[in-house]
Amino acid sequence: QSLAGQATCSNVTRCAFPSQFIAIQPTTSSDTVCQNVTRCTSRQFEFQAPTPTTDRVCKDITVCNLTTHWEEFAATQFQDAICTLLTECIQDDQFQSSAPGPYVDRQCTNYTVCGSNQFESVAATPTTDRVCTNLTECSFPQRYEETSPTPTTDRACASVELCGVTQHEVAVPTPTSNRICEECTPCATGSFILNECNGWNNTVCSPCITSCNSTSYLSGVCNQDSTQAPVCKPCHPSCNTCTGPLDSHCTSCREGLVLLSGECV
Fold this sequence. Notes:
The structure is a single chain. By secondary structure, this protein is mainly β. The protein has strands spanning 20-24, 33-36, 44-48, 57-60, 69-73, 82-85, 94-98, 107-110, 118-122, 131-134, 143-147, 156-159, 167-171, 180-183, 191-195, 204-207, 216-219, 231-234, 239-242, 250-253, 259-260, 263-264. It has no helices and 22 strands. The strands form eleven sheets. A two-stranded antiparallel ribbon has the order 1-2. A two-stranded antiparallel sheet has the order 3-4. A two-stranded antiparallel sheet has the order 5-6.
């Protein structure tokens, strides 16, 4: 029991750590001041753990700007969320093959490069790849390349023309050009067909003979549409000159014979 007028001593309060911490240390004339340790909310994380003499420090969880970032690591009780810049696809080299989400990054893939025997049948976009298709083969000499391919269009093929029965070839086909045919040239009057026109060669004409030597006669008719030409044939043995093959066709006689009524006797 204390004496009148004398101070009374009391035990110092002990803070119940970890639910409490010492906010103010005791002195010879004052007791310990305890405070409850702060509890972080669901939107906070523990930035600094409490100690017997310090409070817990809480910080707000970072909210990622999803237009420019994605949440690579979610927040925990003791760690903030980690926001990472979204991958940017390289313009003209890559397309977005997978769209970003709150917790996934944007995925980029290199555009397909069409080979030398391909063309771009479907153009690339920022979110789709280009489609390459093999160029059509023209299978010459049945078909030729009518239109050359471009990086974005296919080769166009066409059938090689065949010359008709009244035509001949003036230009041979190539892998990139068609055969050129022209109508056969008719023979002029006074000539005959020496070589007939066919699919490859034009008509060859030759002039008809119009006279023979004195001991022969002209046999046949000159026809510009015929392959048969007039020819010189020998007179009858009794004739010196003649107009035909018989002894009655003599116009003059061999030596020792005389012409009588068209015959040499």
